[in-house]
Each structure stands twice: as structure tokens, then as C-alpha cells.
Specification:
The protein is 40% helix and 21% strand. By secondary structure, it is of the alpha/beta class. It has a six-stranded parallel sheet. Strands 7-8 form a two-stranded parallel ribbon.
Length: 211
């Protein structure tokens, strides 16, 4: 290991120990892979890693779902095969009932949950990773008529975290990070709150920055 490489590994691995395992665990639990179409709602700190996992797992389709077109091209670079703007009625209609698993990693404050659920295929699952600030209101028929499930997922244990890190190394799954000095922690927090990072901020000590 060359001098300083351990610091580089830590900077890359750190986001995987949160955003990485949070998105990896449900994909493994619900058997994402060949024959499955996976959607990811929200292309941010969690979503950009989730897209990479789904692509590395060789899912038939990896669909990035966002409320704007600003990340359309970046989603393709991450491994998405399709992009759906949730504010575009034509794109939503074309994608209806097409995804076996959808990971909800973030959402617009005024999200139409009924519309998002309509993207899930019959017998499919919507996995909630981001917590809504208000109770969800969804017609029960959306679950009963098409046997769709909405489930939650928190994180994975030690065994799955080790598996996840090995998988990331083997398939070159890497979080996109912005390094900022530890002394600028207030600026980093502001940067995150304003939604600017692409896609995770990693705080770096002065000693690490010199390596």
C-alpha cells in the first residue's frame, strides 16, 4: 500500500458505511439482479450509490426518478438505463407499473405518493429509506388490486456491511465525494442543507490533506 492510500480508502469508504449499506441491504434482501427492474427515487447521497449497486447487480433496467431534469445526464454516468422526471406526466405514464423494486431515497415535499406507487409493477415493492415529515395518504386500492407492497428498510448488520464493501471493491462502486477541510464544518453543513453536494461531503483533517 503506497503512502497515503489508506487515507484515500477511508475517504471513499466512509459514505458507504451509511449511504452504501442503507441502499445495498434492501436490494439484496429483495433479490435485485437479472430479471428485475429497479427504480431509484431521488438522485442524491443515497440515490447515486443505489443506482450503482443496481447496475453492478446487472438488473435488467435501472431507472433514475427525480423531480427535475438537472441530474438526467449524471444518472446515466452512474449506470441508470432510463430517467423519469416525476413532474413529467408523459414520462410517468410511460413508466407506469414497470419496476419490480423502487428505492425511495428522497422525495419532493409535495410528492404525489399515489403517482410514485403507480410506477411499481404488480407484486412489486416500494422500499422507503427516506422518512416523510408528514403521514402518507394513499388509496388502499393501490395495494390490494395489484398486490403492491410498501416496506421500510433501515440499514444492514456487520456481515452484510463486509459483503457490501467487498462487492464495492470488486465492481468499482464508488461514492462521488467532495472533500472539505474539517475547519470549514459550518460551511460544509450549509453546503449540504442547500443541496449542492455531488453527492457526499467528506470532512478532511489538515494532516490527511497533506498526505
Amino acid at each position: 500500500m503506497r503512502p497515503g492510500s489508506s487515507f484515500c480508502f477511508i475517504l471513499i469508504a466512509a459514505p458507504l458505511l451509511c449511504a452504501g449499506i442503507t441502499t445495498y441491504a434492501p436490494l439484496i434482501q429483495y433479490k435485485a439482479g437479472p430479471g428485475k427492474k429497479v427504480g431509484v427515487i431521488g438522485i442524491g447521497g443515497l440515490g447515486h450509490v443505489a443506482i450503482q449497486w443496481a447496475a453492478a447487480l446487472k438488473c435488467d433496467e435501472v431507472v433514475a426518478i427525480s423531480s427535475s431534469d438537472s441530474k438526467r445526464e449524471e444518472s446515466k454516468k452512474l449506470g441508470a438505463t432510463k430517467f423519469v422526471n416525476s413532474k413529467n406526466e408523459a414520462e410517468m405514464k410511460a413508466a407506469a407499473q414497470s419496476m419490480d423494486i423502487i428505492l425511495c431515497t428522497s422525495f419532493d415535499k409535495n410528492a404525489d405518493w399515489g403517482a410514485l406507487l403507480s410506477l411499481v409493477a404488480n407484486n412489486g415493492k416500494m422500499v422507503i429509506l427516506a422518512l416523510p415529515e408528514a403521514p402518507l395518504t394513499i388509496e388502499a386500492g393501490a395495494f390490494v388490486q395489484r398486490q403492491v407492497s410498501m416496506v421500510g428498510s433501515l440499514i444492514g448488520g456487520k456481515k452484510m456491511t463486509r459483503e457490501m464493501l467487498d462487492f464495492a471493491a470488486k465492481h468499482n462502486v464508488r461514492p462521488w465525494i467532495e472533500k472539505m477541510p474539517m475547519s470549514d464544518c459550518n460551511a460544509a453543513v450549509k453546503h449540504v442543507i442547500e443541496g449542492h453536494p455531488r453527492y457526499r461531503v467528506v470532512m478532511e483533517t489538515a494532516a490527511a490533506a497533506k498526505v
